[in-house]
Amino acid sequence: MSTSDQWIFKKEDLYRTPSQTMGGSTYSEEKEARAKGVTFIVSVGMHLKLPQLTMATAALFFHRFYMRHSLKDYKFYDIGATCIYLASKTEESTRKFKDVIVACAQKAAKRDAPIEDSSKEFRVWKDTIIFTEELLLETLCFELSVEHPYHFMLTLFNNHYVKESNRSAHLRQVAWAFINDSLRTTLCLLYPPRIIALAAVHIAAKYLDENLNETLGDTWRELYEPDNQEIQDAANEIMDQYAQASNRNGRSFDKIAPGSKPGSEYQENNTPAYAGYLNSPAKLATPVYSHDASIVP
């Protein structure tokens, strides 16, 4: 088994995780806890102004950790904080340890009041991250170099999109937003980054009534047709969270309306692309996008 294969699981594996077999959680409870954990990671990451890929790496570490440990034994706040700290070092976007501790403590307590480094709360968070980092590294088998769907998606648009650039930017923007929101799901445990990227592009095209056979031509057909079922299944996994959000809010979202979903705060050059995202009842509070030329060759 290669290092990449060991982190791709079958759907049924998600129904027999340590949280369920040993921790007593149901599948739905674990799914919700995972989403809350990634939301915490994103919240802390945005507070620390971490790059998008750093937050995505932290989310990936988080999901992988709970395939080998139980939520009953390790609180998602503790693991989320450690994933943020480790990912910031892995992706060379290191923040001061003190700043990470303060941000985690504030977001966990849902308050903005300053936290002194002499306080008991600060010391507890510090000790937790230091203790948990070694466990996290061992659980990940020290495999810290990861790949994300963003690179594949951006390369696809940059090299093969044949229509005007503003349409390309619009479609890329929405696909990026769907990838962001997928971080809260276990999609990264079921499919390789390439499939997730294609699923996000597929949904984004439907979202904007874009014909990918025209705008990406033979390239899209060559990519899509061999993995049609996998891409459809991955797309369904992404969309399930919106159905759940609508159920919680007592609203029907049969038709996604531009500017109201997926709820991602996508920004390019610090300009909000969809103001509607910020006020949407289905908002999932995903990371801000800031184009980084280093993502694509």
Q: What is the helix content?
A: 55-70%
How many beta-strand segments?
2
CATH class group of the largest domain: Mainly Alpha
Distance between the termini: 29 Å
Roughly what is the average pLDDT, rounded to an integer? 81
The number of helices is 14
- Unreliable residue stretches: 250-297
CATH homology group of the largest domain: Cyclin-like
Walk across the major sheet and give the strand order.
1-2
Structural class by helix and strand composition: mainly alpha
Share of β-strand residues:
under 5%
| Tally of distinct domains | 2
Label the overall shape.
globular
**SSE succession:** HHHHHHHHHHHHHEEH
Family: Belongs to the cyclin family.
Protein name: Protein BUR2
Region (Disordered): 250-272
Pfam families: Cyclin_C_2 (PF16899), Cyclin_N (PF00134)
Structural commentary:
By secondary structure, this protein is mainly α. The protein has 2 domains: 12-139, Orthogonal Bundle (Cyclin A, domain 1), CATH 1.10.472.10; 149-295, Cyclin-like (Cyclin A, domain 1, Orthogonal Bundle), CATH 1.10.472. 59% of the residues lie in helices and 1% in strands. It contains 14 helices and 2 strands. It has helices spanning 18-21, 27-47, 52-65, 76-90, 97-109, 120-139, 149-160, 165-182, 187-190, 193-207, 212-215, 217-224, 228-248, 275-279, and strands at residues 267-268, 271-272. It has a two-stranded antiparallel sheet with strand order 1-2. Strand 1 (267-268) and strand 2 (271-272) form a beta hairpin. Helix 8 packs across helix 10. The longest helix is centred in the first third of the chain and has 21 residues, at 27-47. Residues 250-297 have low confidence and may be disordered.
